[in-house]
Amino acid sequence: MFKNVGKRFAFIAVLALTLIVAACGGSDGDSESSGDNGDSSGGSNVGDGKSIELVYVEWDTEVASTHVIGKVLEDLGYDVTLTPLDNAVMWQSVANGESDAMVAAWLPATHGDLFEEYKDQVVDLGANFDGAKIGMVVPSYMDIDSIEDLPEVADELDQTITGIEPGAGVVKASENSVEEYGLDGWEVQTSSSGAMATALGEAIDNEEPIAVTGWSPHWKFAEYDLKYLEDPKEVYGGAEEIKTMARQGLEEDLPNAYKVLENFSWGEEKFNNVMLEIHNGTDPEEAAATFVEENQDLVDEWTADVE
């Protein structure tokens, strides 16, 4: 079972391990510098117990994807730590080498500012999901189809758009949409991803109007009948990618783990299924383990270049 801890505890653990290795000496202390080719068969000894830390923001998409790829790396023999962080801290952690990688970079819009800040300090391993989208989402039973129609339901919505964490890209875009569409008196009410999903579910159960900051892939599109409001001014931008970013030097230090992360890519149906399982109460580790067991052909593609 991989570890899911805060940064401070992860740092203490790594520091303690470093001191122990230094005290013991011997060839084991130099093993990481020679790569991680512990088993040419691609079996459970490939990682040879070496540590790798993946960081993620606690959005449903990233909880699902990080646990799935973490399970794949664990099965290859790595000592995997998964650490949830705020958006900005996640990027900073990979950029300064405190953590090894993330599969949580929404580009070009959502994390665009952070990518511009750190792009010269991280390694872009490419998209792990294509066709991601952000926007304003309402239940399909609402009689509006565009952001421009929101004034028609101002009283029903109390001039409120239900958002997620402050500073998230979709929240910033929604705040911009209030200004761009002249929605005077409207507010993007920030909370958390979980609180937004709860409010959405409660509204739908009662067939009440609600507008939320939305993105896909997300389990809510598998659970509910929803629609994006048209955005004629393109405030939210076009299609996005979710990309994998690694620290500089990871390819040299853990070449096989790097290859797996570089190969990691999946489609919306599988993505949504894992998210929905977790939303319905399955522990993320258990959901990831089930997915890996039931989708071995896809996992084989991700691990195909392991030596």
TrEMBL record:
The record lists the lineage as:
Bacteria, Bacillati, Bacillota, Bacilli, Bacillales
* CDD domains linked: PBP2_OpuAC_like
Q: What PROSITE patterns does the annotation carry? A: PROKAR_LIPOPROTEIN
- What Pfam families is this protein classified in? OpuAC (PF04069)
- Annotated ranges, domain ABC-type glycine betaine transport system substrate-binding: 50-294
The record's annotation in SUPFAM superfamilies points to:
Periplasmic binding protein-like II
- Signal peptide positions are 1-23
Answer yes or no on keyword Cell membrane: yes
Its name, as the record gives it, is Glycine betaine ABC transporter substrate-binding protein
